[in-house]
Design brief:
The chain is built from twelve helices and 27 strands. The chain starts with 6 loop residues before the first strand and ends in an 11-residue tail after the last helix. Strand 26, helix 11 and strand 27 (about 490) form a beta-alpha-beta unit. The longest helix is centred in the middle third of the chain and has 16 residues, at about 275-290. Helix 9 (about 435-440) crosses helix 10. By secondary structure, the protein is of the alpha+beta class. The chain folds into four domains: about 5-160, no CATH class; about 165-295, no CATH class; about 300-330 and about 435-520, 3-Layer(aba) Sandwich (Rossmann fold); about 335-430, no CATH class.
Length: about 525
């Protein structure tokens, strides 16, 4: 990591306070930039990672400001108005020597089909990760002496550009493709791309007339092979073994301007991702890779975010799939949005106990020790981006589940600074994306389509408290009648996030489901 000494500028009458000034040279980015500019601060002795890499909900201080039409020769000013975390304001940063690093997150203008114009970061096939997104800009860490009482500016230059992503090469088992979504491009007013990574079964090329069941394994954006199938791994040896069902295993890439994946459903803020996935991407997968292409031969799985997506697809598209094996899904009942009851609680961050307030945790270890708190995760996101633009977990839930605010951005479920919950927004969440509520309120018509298709697996000590909402879903399913639910629900004692049976245990169950539901005379060419 290269270090340099920062330049101290003379104070000005208009800016008589300690501050950072960040510029972008024309050689790095010729046009004006609308986006967010950051300065990250770390201790001088900690050089194992850059200051930007050290930021996080419990990490090194990060300060951010929005910029509009920032051109070469102009500077972005980060002073006492910049939003920071875990140090809230620059003037609260103690005097001393630090390593500081500038960074610029470049936004794109989206003139959406719903009439709203928003500025968000366009994914560059990195999975909506601003710290490594191609085209974003950064500078080398600089050693500075900071004095919050000084009336000087520390000038930093973000003159380096993150290069394009390198997509892994295909091989005999793993194939990839990327396609433009016409549905999403029309809605967002910008080209939007979808993709898939497909693991084909042993003998795929040697059996050109065979057609296969397909397992859609959902999760966070990744270009890696699903199931950890590689050139020489235990997973690969199992995949090629004689007893392994010959099926297609597919992960889908659908990053949105709000997150590394769209959560796979149609939503007011994210747009028609559900339509694009089911009407464009999946048909292309099944055409290219000779899938049977029938609901009884189309299955779902995934963990965490992917656990929610897979379960939501089975619930929202019940006629499209033949079963789901959901692992550690995100909140399936918003009475436990992690451990916040968005319908009844008044504050997401604190519990009022009269003489004191009790902080709510966000992440724990199986032994009960707390890793992060709710307020810190949310306040870090606020430093990264306002208006749900952090690319973070809490912000994508707002973008997926919530209505559009008057400014065209997602309407907050709670005030990001205070944690005060908006129950009108919570009601919208309930009617559209509370999976337990959707199942229970429509069971008379939905139940016959999914009663034998719903399987869920989760640890009893889930790191994000997701087991609490899962218990509420399980309670409903156990008591459901006309029809009765016949799936599997497993709570693993003392298991964290994201516990679940490995694919080698689930795939035979999936294959058995395909055989059970296949109509008379169904294609069986995959059984070789």
């Amino acid at each position: 990591m290269r270090l340099a000494l920062a330049l101290l500028l003379a104070p000005s009458a208009a800016l008589a306070q300690a501050r950072f000034e960040v510029s972008v040279p024309a050689a790095a980015h010729a046009g004006p930039i609308t986006g967010r500019v950051y300065v990250a601060v770390s201790r001088v002795r900690d050089t194992s990672r850059t200051p930007i890499a050290q930021t996080g909900e419990t990490g090194a201080p990060l300060f951010g400001v929005n910029v509009s039409e920032l051109g070469p020769g102009r500077v972005a000013i980060l002073d006492g108005t910049a939003v920071g975390h875990p140090v809230r304001r620059l003037q609260e940063l103690p005097a001393g020597e630090y390593l500081v690093q500038p960074f610029v997150n470049v936004y794109t203008r989206f003139a959406r089909a719903d009439g709203n114009v928003v500025w968000l970061h366009m994914d560059q096939w990195e999975g909506q990760d601003w710290k490594r997104s191609p085209g974003n800009l950064y500078g080398d860490p600089v050693r500075v002496r900071w004095d919050p009482r000084a009336r000087t500016a520390i000038r930093l230059v973000a003159g380096k550009v993150i290069p394009p992503i390198t997509v892994p090469a295909d091989d005999e088992r793993v194939r990839r493709f990327k396609m433009k979504s016409e549905i999403l491009s029309r809605w967002w007013g910008q080209p939007i791309y979808l993709g898939a990574t497909v693991v084909v079964p042993k003998g795929f090329d040697a059996h050109p007339d065979a057609r296969y069941p397909v397992v859609y394994s959902h999760g966070h954006f990744s270009l890696a092979a699903p199931g950890r199938v590689g050139r020489d791994t235990a997973a690969t040896r199992w995949w090629d073994a004689e007893g392994t069902p010959r099926m297609l295993l597919v992960t889908l890439q659908h990053p949105s301007p709000y997150y590394d994946d769209s959560y796979g459903v149609n939503s007011a803020n994210n747009g028609p991702y559900g339509d694009a996935i089911t009407k464009e991407l999946m048909p292309e997968v099944e055409r290219r890779f000779r899938a049977i292409g029938q609901p009884w031969a189309r299955l779902l799985t995934g963990g965490s975010t992917g656990g929610w997506i897979s379960l939501a697809h089975q619930v929202l598209y019940p006629d499209l799939y033949g079963g789901v094996w959901s692992l550690c899904p995100d909140a399936v009942d918003f009475r436990f949005h992690q451990i916040v009851n968005v319908y009844a609680d008044t504050n997401a961050y604190w519990l009022n106990r009269g003489w004191t307030r009790v902080e709510r945790p966000a992440q724990r270890r199986p032994d009960g020790n707390i890793v992060t708190m709710m307020k810190d995760e949310n306040w870090y996101e606020l430093a990264v981006g306002d208006r749900s633009r952090s690319g973070g977990q809490w912000d994508i839930w707002e973008a997926t589940y919530g209505p559009i605010g008057t400014d065209g951005y997602p309407k907050r479920i709670w005030d990001k600074r205070t944690g005060v919950i908006d129950h009108a927004v919570a009601s919208y969440w309930k009617e559209h994306y509370d999976l337990r509520h959707l199942l229970e309120s429509t069971w008379a018509t939905l139940g016959p389509k999914v009663a034998d298709k719903l399987n869920v697996y989760i640890g009893e000590d889930d790191s994000y408290y997701l087991d609490d909402g899962a218990h509420l879903l399980h309670d409903f399913l156990k008591g459901a009648t006309n029809p009765r639910w016949t799936g599997e629900f497993v709570f693993q004692p003392q298991a964290p996030h994201c516990w679940g049976p490995p694919l080698r245990e689930l795939l035979p169950k999936m294959a058995a489901q395909v055989v059970k539901n296949a109509p008379a005379g169904a294609d069986s060419s995959w059984k070789y």
